[in-house]
Amino acid sequence: MANYLKGIGDPQTRVNEIIPKFDAQIFNFLAQCVPGICWSETNRFALTTITRGVRIGAGMCQAHGYFGMSDALTQLDFITPTSGNQFVRVFAEINLSVTPHRFSVRATAQSTSSNIALTQNNLSTTPNGVYQIPLYLLTLATNGTITSTDQRPQMTKPEHAKNAEQATNATNATNLTGTGTIATGVTAVTQTQATNNTRVATTAYVRTAIAALETFSHVSSGSSASARNSAGGDGEWGRYTMPNGVIWIWYTSSDQHVTFPWAFPNKCWMVGYAGHRGAGTADNVTSRNVGITWTTVTRTGFSWSFQSGASSMNNRKYWAIGC
Which CATH class is domain 217-322? Predict the structure, then answer.
């Protein structure tokens, strides 16, 4: 049991001694990245195929705070299979099980299966562990051809940064504070019109929604309704359904007990008298002729008050609203 201070290390007095495990813990905290290849480096373990083998270029990688680097070519030679393809995985290995610890670029034994497992211990909790970072899967053909599949995990940046210096210039943000302001040029994905949650609505979403509400959906109508603006029609009957589901029906009635030509799917909110169609004396209206018994209004129809039969009551018009 001891206390340690990170420093340059004094080999004589062992004051501020450099301890690889302590360094790895510091790097792991600073990087907070999953194991992978340091993609910000120019050298990334590039592969070159040669006769009966490959050459792996220089590169740098990291696993649980332990960094490994190769600054020279590593040549790996293989035996050409005599029947059927064989497979090899090339990997970068950080090995804490040996003293001194070792970093190397290696290859697995040739296999008839491409499903070749690698050893990947958690070096933070296994002091003598081994972590093998995949580089390439090689396919060895009987004619000597070697093909490669790139398996290098790219480590481009620290995964987590708190209070980043350039946070105010970030192009993406998980949360905005209560006093935050979104810049005028910011764009977002336009959701579908059926979206009903707390996602941000773009101007395209809002304008489409407003345009839909401004548009009446014409469901059906008769010849008189379609000619309502001409000399030959007065809008005798028809139906319109609005985008929000509200339905308007207008019709001409002669019976005391009226059945809507189209029943409302859910309910009828109101029925109103809309005048008589025609100008004959038999169509003249009195106050007794236009009463509506509200208690009779349902989604399928209603009844006129004070009427018995259809005498002199033809061409009486009404309109109803429901959903």
Answer: mainly beta
Q: Tens of pLDDT along 4-43?
A: 555 566 667 666 666 677 777 777 777 778 899 988 889 9
Domain ranges of the chain: 34-155, 217-322
Type of residue numbered 298: T
CATH of span 34-155: 2.60.40
Can you give the three-state secondary structure of the chain, one letter per residue?
CCCCCCCCCCCCCCCCCCCHHHHHHHHHHHHCCCCEEECCCCCECCEEEECCEEEECCEEEEECCEEEEECCCEEEECCCCCCCCEEEEEEEEEECCCCCCEEEEEECCCECCCCCCCCECCCCCCCCCEEEEEEEEEEECCCCCEEEEECCCEECCCCCCCCCCCHHHCCCCCCCCCCCCCCCCCCCCCCCCCCCCCCCCCHHHHHHHHHHHHCCEEEEECHHHHCCCCCCCCCCCEEEECCCCCEEEEEEECCCEEECCCCCCCCEEEEEEEEECCCCHHHCCCHHHCCEEHHHCCCCEEEECCCCCCCCCCCEEEEEEEC
Q: 318 pairs with which residues across the strands?
A: 251, 273
Q: What is the spatial distance between Cα 84 and Cα 73, in angstroms, rounded to a whole number?
A: 29
pLDDT digits (tens, 9 = 90+) for 107-157: 999 999 999 999 999 998 998 999 999 999 999 999 999 999 999 999 877
Same fold for the domain at 34-155 and the one at 217-322? yes
User: What's the pTM value of the predicted model, to 2 decimals?
Assistant: 0.51
